[in-house]
Design a protein that fits this description.
Elements (H helix, E strand, L loop, with lengths): L1 E5 L3 H12 L3 E5 L8 H7 L3 E3 L17
Parallel strand pairs: 1-2, 2-3
Length: about 70
């Protein structure tokens, strides 16, 4: 089964891990764009991919992280 997950916060990430472990394919999307999903997609392996942003809508900028 191929499942799309909108939102890759804690719940979306855990759901993606569970589905991939069960042998499913996942397509991930978030408001910040597919370029921010690289580490998660790499962790999940070939069963995971990042969806492109919708046409005409630029992705949001990445969140500022405290250092």
């Amino acid at each position: 089964m191929r499942t799309g997950i909108i939102g890759t916060g804690r719940i979306g990430t855990v759901l993606a891990r569970i589905l991939v472990a069960a042998g499913h394919q996942v397509v991930l999307a978030n408001a910040r764009g597919p370029q921010t999903l690289g580490p998660l997609v790499a962790e999940l392996g070939p069963a995971a991919s990042a969806a492109p942003p919708p046409p005409g809508r630029p992705p949001r900028p990445p969140l500022a992280r405290e250092t």
